[in-house]
Write a structure and sequence with these properties.
The complex is a heterodimer of chains A (about 120) and B (about 110). With about 120 residues, chain A is an all-beta fold. Chain A is about 0% helix and about 50% strand. The chains are: A mainly beta (about 120), B mainly beta (about 110).
Amino acid sequence: NAGVMQNPRHLVRRRGQEARLRCSPMKGHSHVYWYRQLPEEGLKFMVYLQKENIIDESGMPKERFSAEFPKEGPSILRIQQVVRGDSAAYFCASSPELAAYNEQFFGPGTRLTVL
Amino acid sequence: GQQLNQSPQSMFIQEGEDVSMNCTSSSIFNTWLWYKQDPGEGPVLLIALYKAGELTSNGRLTAQFGITRKDSFLNISASIPSDVGIYFCAGPTRTASKLTFGTGTRLQVTL
């Protein structure tokens, strides 16, 4: 997972606050994916973005969650009015332009704790 | 939706032993990926399989893409303490926009 950067690594928020998670993909990668992992479970897909476009957001809750990947800068996963159930590890992955073989490379994750 | 079931759920083995784990799907996959996740870290890609029947090695790791395209196997030979972690299989959806992850196999290695 060398190269995919996520920050912060740990984030604590109180119920009702906003959480902003950042992801910088590997150099040369223009596809970004966000996944959520609850304790003792596998990763669950949330959203897939290319530069300035959301391609697939089928795994992202319709309310309170949003994602963007601007032309310049990192991808942002934003959670508004957080609730305790949002506590989880959020992982970002990236793949190169020609993702013919579906290989995604993951960052170290952001662990969100909602008090 | 697609589901990937991994077995065993957890394993406790002694250093030096060989390990086998598998992943089965309710539907066909055209690619199988095996990841390892250390505590507090993101998944790291170990092996990628692209063809039914394919057998691929990466050091002490060997993985196979099942003929039916509904299963895959991962073997680790001569385990060492740093093999400890959770091993996930994963496969892309038909649209290739997202990975479905398995339930994971937690490996513990004792000296």
